[in-house]
Amino acid sequence: MLLARTLDELRAGCASLRAKHGTLALVPTMGALHDGHRALVCAAGADGAAVVTSIFVNPLQFGASEDLSRYPRDEAGDLAALEECGCHLVWLPDVATMYPADDVTTIVVAGPAERWEGEARPGHFRGVATVCAKLFGQVRPDRAFFGEKDWQQLQVVSRMVADLLLPLKIVGVPTVREPDGLALSSRNRFLTAEDRRRAPRLHEVLLGLSRAMAKGAGADAVADARQELTRSGFAVDYLALVDGQTLAPLNTAQEGSRLVAAARIGSVRLIDNLGI
User: Fold this and answer.
1) 176-206 pLDDT per residue, tens
2) Where in the chain does DSSP place strands (E)?
3) Which domains occur in the chain, in start order?
4) Of the residues 21, 34, 37, 124, which is catalytic?
5) 37 is catalytic
């Protein structure tokens, strides 16, 4: 497995891998890797593509009230995990490489970025879109792989790629969950034992709501589900039925609709989503 910490090393490594494998697949991450990330790497390399995984904790997607320094980091563990699951090259840029002091350009996104996480975390998707555009320009992948757990992020990046006519395909990979339903996240390690016991209730409520809406339940069922989460100890940022691509709110389920939710349990903010 190759390591690149400079743009020259990255370009040389990507050129060598493309000559050998024909196609490049990118898995952008912020590190602290878990089985969800491993699933992305496996999916990226399933058809013989060379897999490039980036590890970069992106300061531009953290708000003023969010603690960038608290985000978990484990470079040695991440590299061992990536080598074990068949990654070909790991891109490890520093902040100065990604955001030179004279940078003046960021990407402003609207549409699917405007609600939910966009409102809860102002500027977050500007940071996501900007760093992804930079990674796409640096690696020049044929495909890039994102987890469906961050459903809104997946739609924002897909729309950016379509709108800017970028020459790559965005591929979503299904959410990987613990046996009790909790979606894997790097932040789960901050759950206390009691909060970890209660955390799967978010998925349980979404699952029950999804089944109810598939049978014709409407907005009242969504409101009831929010109250159920509150009774279960969650502080709910949002729980909504939306169009799966545009993230526009819906009153009743239709083809391609999705439930999206964000709720805090203890000190940890969990996000999840589920199709109808």
Assistant:
1) 999 999 999 999 999 999 999 999 999 999 9
2) 2-4, 24-29, 50-55, 89-91, 143-147, 169-173, 235-243, 257-265, 268-275
3) 2-173 (3.40.50.620), 186-270 (3.30.1300.10)
4) 37
5) yes
